[in-house]
Specification:
Blueprint lengths: L7 E5 L3 H14 L4 E5 L2 E6 L2 E6 L14 E4 L3 H10 L4 E3 L3 E2 L10 E2 L2 E3 L5 E5 L8
Parallel strand pairs: 1-4, 5-10
Antiparallel strand pairs: 2-3, 3-4, 6-9, 7-8, 9-10
Length: 132
């Protein structure tokens, strides 16, 4: 048996307005293309995986329900500029990070930004090779 990677991540909003804000952030700001869309939900292409957004959460989810979503990109600076240009705060500036793990992973740039729901989004410049 073998896991090939993450197939998809599902993020739930408690309102249609939250769903639209998330779609704006992931679709417009980060440039993820819509793969499928239906009333109350959307799938966005994220390289080899999918981000699903739904408006079916029973109530507003607490901060920390999802620690972060890490997206891999070869151009962290371009995405940081797009996040800033869209008015979102960058909560962690890009910097080289080496995790204290065995075996040690290759360094990566790990910035973070807060999206419309107040949740963090991260990106990794090393093609997603870091292992926690």
């Amino acid at each position: 048996m073998r896991i090939n990677g993450i197939h998809h991540i599902c993020l739930k909003a408690s309102t249609t307005e939250e769903l639209e804000k998330a779609l704006d952030f992931y679709g417009t700001v980060l440039g993820l293309a819509v793969r499928r869309q239906w009333p109350g939900g959307v799938m966005l292409c994220a390289g080899n995986s999918v981000i699903e957004l739904y408006d079916s959460a029973a109530e507003a989810l607490p901060q920390g329900a999802i620690r972060h979503v890490a997206l891999s990109t070869p151009d962290v600076d371009e995405y940081i500029a797009a996040v800033r240009a869209a008015g979102y705060p960058v909560t962690v500036e890009p910097k080289d990070v080496t995790l204290d793990s065995v075996p040690p992973p290759a360094p990566s740039a790990s910035p973070s930004a807060r999206g419309r729901w107040g949740r963090k989004s991260s990106s990794s410049a090393n093609g997603g090779r870091n292992t926690p």
